[in-house]
Amino acid sequence: MNYFRILAFLLIFSVPQIVSGQETRYSFEKGLMGSPFKLVFYTTSDTLAKRAADNAFRRVEELNEIMSDYRDGSEINRLSAQSGSGKWVPVSKDLFDILAISQDISKKCDGVFDVTLGPVVQMWRHATRKGTFPSEQEIADARSKTGYNKMKLNAKTRSVLLTQKGMRLDIGGLGKGFAAEEALKELKKLGITSAMMDAGGKIVMTNPPPGTEGWNITISNGSDSLKTIQLANTSLATSGPTYRYMEYKGVRYSHIVDPKTGIGLLFHVRTTAICDGGTISDALATAFSVAGIEKSKKMIKRFPGTKVWLVERKGEQVTEWSTLSR
Ligand code: ADP
Ligand code: MG
User: Fold this and answer.
1) pTM higher than 0.85
2) What is the residue with the minimal CA distance to atom 16 of ligand 1?
3) How far, in Å, from the CA of 256 to the mean position of ligand 2?
4) Ligand 1 mean position to 39 CA, how many Å?
5) Of 9, 207, 252, 303, which one is least surrounded by beta carbons within 10 A?
6) What is the CATH number of domain 213-326?
7) Which ligand neighbours the alpha carbon of 290 most closely?
8) Domain ranges of the chain
9) What is each CA distance from 39 to 102, 126, 187, 206, 268, in whole angstroms?
């Protein structure tokens, strides 16, 4: 997982296409948070388009400064460093908001989604780099420092208490969705209301392109099956082991960890979640992946309006569950 490493600072400004009346289609791309961030929107002037894209990407960079687990000085790492001190630490609105959403999802998902998995994620990252497999003891030690109930939030004072020493927060499971959602708010401030941000498979959309019913989004089951759907004013996130996994002695482990075992998922899941909100759709794609098809069928009831396409691979056996057409 190289979630918050900024891979490239490439800003691509494509030739705009005039579409309807005065509205022109613009697209920009920038490497942020370890993924390509692609921004498409419709507006009336090159100057406004450039300003909008700059503001949107600047907002993502600002969030990366706060939430990157790769920077020692990031706000999230400074907060983690105070774990076990008994202190309530005041935090920025951005950090508080993302932790509050995470906590709510953890509660509704019986902990399959958990931003306190940092020690376990760090252990796997280290093992992947070294090509080793952690011992049972190491896994147990890392797991003992996790648990969403050990993260306390006080909305009145906007502060956080991490009750145990050695805790470490990791918002890799929902950070890109949060950033995509926040980036589109910057466009709205400038009056741009037909827009789409694709943050490495975490897609947030406002109104459809002028004269159309929606944004055409193609999703896949990870191999042979593709679906194109038209969406607007919603969010879609896909999670899957396409790029990020660890292979040890011929066995592939996902970078998505089951909090109950502290080990990366062994059955390979590709999950697409569609719902209102980039942060929630990103978190749910991760959460449904951990829960698997059977548990997800129950879990989805706690998230009205959510649609999901879940593909599980256990060896040669592929099982799918989809609520997309409902
Ligand atoms: P990606 O961003 O790679 O598409 P996800 O949105 O599914 O994937 O997030 C995976 C990341 O979330 C991991 O790299 C790790 O930082 C974190 N993570 C892993 N397992 C969990 C989990 N069970 N709950 C919450 N976050 C997790
Ligand atoms: Mg996710």
Assistant:
1) yes
2) 172
3) 9
4) 23
5) 9
6) 3.10.520.10
7) 1
8) 1-69+172-207, 75-162, 213-326
9) 25, 33, 10, 12, 29
